[in-house]
């Protein structure tokens, strides 16, 4: 019986120590896509908003590029592109869409720890079928010539 009590106590102490260490860990050091969704998520809607959240990690971001999926059977058209932080404050940036990619070049680099909220407003697809869209996203840090893969935004639409 004593052995059972000792093992139980040691297991509890070890588990609580490990869990408290995980709870105090800071956010990831790498910039990454945190969430993505379509509002509304029906494919037949003529003007949807695709939303992507990106956490800025280790170094500030000066540019973001979202690639439209190559296997898109129909054309994707977009209206305005809005970029804000987690509080809803708009971030100054030059935004462009050339049919194949969305490029967002920030007027000033986005600081480390900032949560970016990107809204692609007025999105229309020509095939009106429910699909899972995978948008690869890349970022460029201040003073870097190479793009950093930030992740993939998964946008699900339904019929």
Characterise this structure.
The protein has a single domain, classed as Immunoglobulin-like (Sandwich), CATH 2.60.40. The longest helix has 22 residues, at 2-23. It has one helix spanning 2-23, and strands at residues 32-39, 48-55, 61-67, 76-77, 81-84, 93-97, 101-110, 115-125, 132-141, 148-156. Strand 9 and strand 10 form a beta hairpin. The strands form two sheets. Strands 1, 2, 4, 5 and 8 form a five-stranded antiparallel β-sheet that branches. The relative contact order is 0.25. Mean pLDDT is 80; it is low at 18-26. It is mostly beta strands and 159 residues long.
In N-to-C order, the SSE pattern is HEEEEEEEEEE
For the record, give the distance between the C-alpha atoms at the N and C termini, rounded to a whole number: 61 Å
Percent range of helical residues: 10-25%
The total count of helices amounts to 1
Instruction: Please identify the structural class as seen in this structure.
Output: mainly beta
List low-confidence stretches. 18-26
How much strand content do the residues show? over 45%
Outline: extended
Major sheet attributes: 5 strands, antiparallel
Structural features:
extended; five-stranded antiparallel β-sheet; mainly beta; single chain; Immunoglobulin-like
List the helices and strands and how they pair.
Blueprint: H1 2-23, E1 32-39, E2 48-55, E3 61-67, E4 76-77, E5 81-84, E6 93-97, E7 101-110, E8 115-125, E9 132-141, E10 148-156
Antiparallel strand pairs: 1-2, 2-8, 3-7, 3-9, 4-8, 5-8, 6-7, 9-10
In short:
With 159 residues, this protein is mainly beta.
């Amino acid at each position: 019986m004593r052995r059972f009590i000792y093992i139980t106590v040691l297991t509890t102490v070890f588990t609580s120590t490990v869990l408290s260490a995980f709870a105090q860990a800071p956010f990831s050091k790498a910039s990454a896509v945190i969430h993505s969704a379509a509002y509304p998520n029906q494919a037949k809607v003529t003007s949807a908003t695709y939303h992507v959240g990106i956490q800025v990690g280790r170094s500030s971001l000066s540019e973001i590029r979202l690639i439209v999926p190559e296997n898109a059977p129909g054309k994707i058209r977009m209206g305005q592109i809005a970029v804000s932080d987690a509080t809803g404050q708009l971030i100054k940036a030059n935004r462009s869409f050339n049919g194949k990619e969305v490029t967002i070049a920030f007027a000033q680099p986005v600081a480390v720890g900032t949560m970016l909220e990107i809204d692609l407003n007025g999105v229309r697809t020509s095939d009106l079928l429910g699909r899972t869209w995978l948008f690869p996203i890349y970022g460029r840090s201040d003073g870097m010539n190479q793009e950093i893969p930030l992740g993939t935004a998964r946008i699900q639409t339904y019929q």
